[in-house]
Amino acid sequence: MADKRLVAVEIDEETLSTSGPDAEHERRVAIFDLIEENVFGVQGDETGPYVLHLSMIERKLVFDIRLEDQTKVHMFILSISPFRGIIRDYFMICENYYSAIKTQSPHQIEAIDMARRGIHNEGSSLLAERLENKIDVDFDTSRRLFTLICALHAGQTRGPGT
């Protein structure tokens, strides 16, 4: 029986470099949360557990999935374009949430947080849909993967071709 989970996530620093210590911290937290608890299986593969290597090629996220001994299992490319609007909205509402914490009533903060969770769920659902027929994940894993994609997006240094 396969061990359908991720045991590590490795980020290609050449194609997904961070813009500072805050961005690096966000990535580490997102990876920790994902590794701590996940359901992740490659369709058609009965091995596992897996190591996920993430890199970027031409504005597309490369999922290079391997076994712990680095044996390649599956690779696919995920276009980030369908996520751009959701990620932009997610960051905007997160900024509003952090501002509201300082000045707004608990009721207003809760309303903003509900909207933030709703956008996060929308991104998670889109990700699960895009992974369909490639990777089996549960909703919580999809949420954690979406959080990591957001952290990768937020931390990227802007340069030619990014």
Distance between the termini: 40 Å
Instruction: Provide the succession of SSEs.
Output: EHEEEEHHEH
Envelope shape? globular
Number of strands: 6
| Biggest sheet record | 4 strands, mixed
Structural class: alpha+beta
Spatial strand order of the main sheet? 1-3-4-5
Percent range for helical residues? 40-55%
Rg over C-alpha atoms, rounded to the nearest angstrom: 16 Å
Regions with pLDDT < 50 over 5+ consecutive residues?
157-162
Number of helical segments?
A: 4
- The overall average pLDDT, rounded, is 91
In a few lines, what is going on in this structure?
By secondary structure, the protein is α+β, with helices and mostly antiparallel strands. The chain has four helices and six strands, in the order βαββββααβα.
Layout of strands and helices, then pairs:
Layout: E1 6-11, H1 21-36, E2 40-42, E3 50-57, E4 60-67, E5 72-79, H2 84-103, H3 106-131, E6 135-137, H4 139-155
Parallel strand pairs: 1-3
Antiparallel strand pairs: 2-6, 3-4, 4-5
Helix pairs in contact: 1-4, 2-3, 3-4
Descriptors for this entry?
162 residues; alpha+beta; four-stranded mixed beta sheet; two-stranded antiparallel ribbon; 6 strands; globular
